[in-house]
Every structure is written in structure tokens, then in C-alpha cells.
Amino acid sequence: MTDPAPSGPPLTSPPDHPVTAVLGGGVMGETVLAGLLRSGRPPEAVVVSEKDPDRARDLEERHGVRALRATDAVRGAATVVLVVKPQDLEALLVEVAPAMAPGQVVVSLAAGVGTAWLEQRVPEGVAVVRVMPNTPATVDQGMAVVSGGASAGEAHLAEAESLMRGTGRVVRVPESQQDAATALSGSGPAYVFLVVEAMVEAGVRLGLPRPTATELAVQTVLGAATMVHETGTHPALLREQVTSPGGTTAAALAVLEQHGLRAAFLDALAAARDRSRELAGG
Ligand SMILES: NC(=O)C1=CN([C@@H]2O[C@H](COP(=O)(O)OP(=O)(O)OC[C@H]3O[C@@H](n4cnc5c(N)ncnc54)[C@H](O)[C@@H]3O)[C@@H](O)[C@H]2O)C=CC1
Ligand SMILES: O=C(O)[C@@H]1CCC=N1
Asked: Where are stretches of biased composition, namely Pro residues (predicted)?
């Protein structure tokens, strides 16, 4: 294994806060860790393991949590959150499984990795929950999708949901829907960023200064998403309200349809769903 993070003193859980170990302190690991702290868990009840020593130190300094070797982090933790890339998961589990004990819950955020695959790699009596988060979690606007494995009970699912609630909304789905959810909400922020980028560039091409084009595009996307969210009105009806007969919006929408926008989304999400299915195979 690569040079591990420094090992601290043995874990002692504060009485009311069982320890959560976050394995992998990258973008998503730090987001989960920060969400836990913001939602009131004390820093003593959260430990991180990050194989990049500089990154581990940085997380310790900025969040006040301890960075430990993965096996030390797992020993004594009630909940173990797996936040490494799917390709790194097998090696991590080979390392930490001997340190796991019955009664623990493993919450995996790795795209495409099923609970059955995980259950084969953890000791009997360790429950597994699969979660697909997304990056708006970094600004507390995340969408996390949660599914339990064969031995996960209500308490394990509730713990996974509570972990993610510090970063936004949480829904529970059957695991058979996880690859589709990954395609929609896991990867989804990237589609919206692409749309914002394209709108800004189009505005600049029409002569708007870049800062103005950026402000107009960002506020329009935010405002439109807030309207769907707050009114509960079907997006097709909201779109009709904007579209005057023979007007500007109708002209633009006709071009987007000619370019196959809907078909592109159908094919794009199917490609993401298929890739999610492939990822577990490495
Ligand atoms: N970034 C995203 O939008 C989303 C990511 N995910 C999932 O979250 C997981 C993590 O993704 P990111 O945070 O984006 O990746 P990342 O590359 O930013 O972070 C992964 C971290 O794990 C560390 N690591 C690798 N092996 C380790 C080991 N054995 N022990 C300790 N640390 C180790 C790496 O040094 C790295 O810092 C992936 O499985 C991904 O599928 C899920 C949904 C959205
Ligand atoms: O692109 C990926 O594979 C990860 C999973 C969902 C978002 N990012």
C-alpha cells in the first residue's frame, strides 16, 4: 500500500457520538466529512483516512479531525464510509476487512459498485449500504440516493441517510434503480454545468460582456430550478408560460429540438447508466 496517513492515538468515542470513519479524503470524502461536522457531530467522532499525506494533513488542519491509517480508522468506528474511486475499492477492502467487526455498517459512495460485491468483501455481520451522492453536496444542495444491502436493516439505512442529510436531500430507492440514479443525479450536475457554459458562450457570441452573460445564465438556471422546485408545476407547463406564440422562445426551442436535445439526453443518460454497470468490474 502507498505511504499511509499518520496514525494517531487509539479511538475513544464520545459517549453520545459513535465514531464515523471516512476512507478517502478527496472531493466527495471531504464533502461528507464537512457535512457531518456541520450537522453537529463533534470532530472527535469523525476520523478520515487519506493515502496522500499532504492531503491528510490539510484535512486535519482545516476540519480539526484526525487522519489515521485506514485499519486504525476502521477499528472502533461504528460506521465506515468508503469514498475512494471504484478502481481503488478492492485494494482498500482487502486492507481494512480484517479490522472490521460485526455490528459495523459500511456505507459505500463508489459509483456502480453493488452491495452484493461489497458484502463478499466484508466480514459476516457487517451491514452494507450503497449511496450515490452528487457534488452540489459541497454547497448543501446535494442529492443522495440510498439503497440497503441484504443485511442492512432500518437502523443502518437511517444512519446512511443521516450521514448524507448534512449535505442536502436524501431519497431511498431499490438497488435496481441505483445505476439509473447515478446517470441522473450523480452525473447530472455536469450536464447542467455544460448547459450553463454553452449559454454563456452563446451570449458572448451575441455581444454580451462575459461577466454579464455569466450572471444572466447562472441566475436564469437557478431561478428556473427554483420555480420547478417551489411551485411543483410540471416543467412543460412552465415552459409554455415562457413561450409566446410566434415569439423568441418558440424560435429557440425549435432549434434545440431540431438539434435533438431530448434524444441527446436519452442517449447520454443510457450511456452513464451502462458505464455505472461496468465500473464494478474495474
Ligand atoms: N465526484 C463526484 O461527482 C462523485 C463521486 N462519487 C464517488 O465518490 C468516490 C470518490 O470520488 P472523488 O471524491 O470524486 O474522488 P477523488 O479522487 O477526489 O478522491 C478519492 C481519494 O481517495 C484517496 N484514496 C485512494 N485509495 C485510498 C486508500 N487505500 N486509503 C485512503 N485513501 C485512499 C485518494 O488519494 C483520493 O484523495 C468515487 O467512488 C466516485 O464514484 C459519487 C458521486 C459523485
Ligand atoms: O463520473 C463518475 O464516474 C462519478 C460518479 C457520478 C459522478 N461522478
From this structure: 1-17
